[in-house]
Write a structure and sequence with these properties.
single chain; 467 residues; mainly alpha; two-stranded antiparallel sheet; 28 helices; 2 strands; flat
Length: 467
Amino acid sequence: MKKVLLPVSAALIGLAGWTAGYFIARDQNSTDESGTNLQIVTATAELQAELDKARKEAAEAKQKAAELEAAAEGNLLTSEFKEATLDEIRNSPGPMDRMKGILAKVGEMSDEEIREALGEQGEKLRQGFDLEQMFTTYMMLSKLGGGDYESALEFLDGQDVMMKTGGSGVVLASRASTDPDQAMEIFDSSAGEIFYTTGIGGFAAANVARELARHDINKALAFTENLPEGAKAEAVSSVLKDIVADDPARASQLALNLPEGSERTRAINDVTENWAAKDPAGAFDWLNTLEDGKEKIEAKKKLLSGWARNDPAGAAQNLAALVPEEDLGTGTKIVANRWSERDPAGAADWLADQPDGKQKTEAMRNTMRSFTSIDPEGASVFLAEQPPGESRDAGIQSLSSTIARNDPIGAITWSAAISDENKRNQQVTAYSKAWLKRDEPAAKDWLETTDVIPIEQKAEILKDVVE
């Protein structure tokens, strides 16, 4: 941050200084049309106003530059928050400003101030879930974990299981950043029991493992060895994900060195997917060195998912090479779901040409949900061009559910085009009755006159409507 911010601040001061200097020079000297220098004894009102404005801008730029300089040194507090309390910062407008303000304020607090503030935080947390209160508490625990970690753990003893587990992970991760060996000792003591007894212990263990890995990969992996199965899988994956970004070959070897079991399988899958997102060819070549079997088959599906994350068209072209014929439906769904995250229209066009089946139907449902949320008209045009069948029905269901609130007539009309009779009747009735509850006069007028719905079904829908 410092390398970027300092030149910016210098530029602001330089620009403001140049502007002020320019007007000061004008205040002292001016040149007439003939080029004769004229000494200005008294500035005109207009020139004086310009000079005052330039000086003000220079002062403001200097203040802004000071704030940027402070930010570069880790002090994110602007003058607005400088004297504010944590509660005042949390009550200020602008969520991003609040988060930055809280982070900076906690960063300036001493261990003693944090210990005192944690007492108040505990009471606030007991009043109910509040994301910003949780964020504030975690930041305090992180700061305290680097110093008086015992006080941090003592505070957590009085909290609920979720806060105790997550908070312990934050404290130990902070401790691991300054003293990895001590963090491991704490984890192995009674303070670490929480990680073995709760379902979310794995997330906390992953924080510690990731921090340890920044110092010593082998130490981080050794730390994971005695964790319970779920927590171990989370922790190992967190370590390898950080490695694969810079050295996928090393990450893959570390995954293969794990003993056979669920942790190894998950590690191989995570490495493969993240590797494929950057270098699908490299990941593919590596997978081909593995022995044939279930582990390799599952890893290829992850390769497909990682590839499709950034290059769905490329993944689609290599679908047959990555999954066996009996799993083509699953592969189709994987590619389509990833593709729809980036380009739902493109995903829908590709999906329409794929063989029918359960997986295609599910993929079309997900794709059309994304497509409709971005471009309902485009989604409608696409569906109108598709032949009747399960895939089109699934797409219509997604379109209808997405537009029902704002366009009940469109939702009902589209639902009436579903080819499956039971699904068609259920959808039409459900959206009609929902509209009647929200706006009975408008819904009743339309339902009584439309020919989209059969007479018998309309009568059933309207039978409970009071005249």
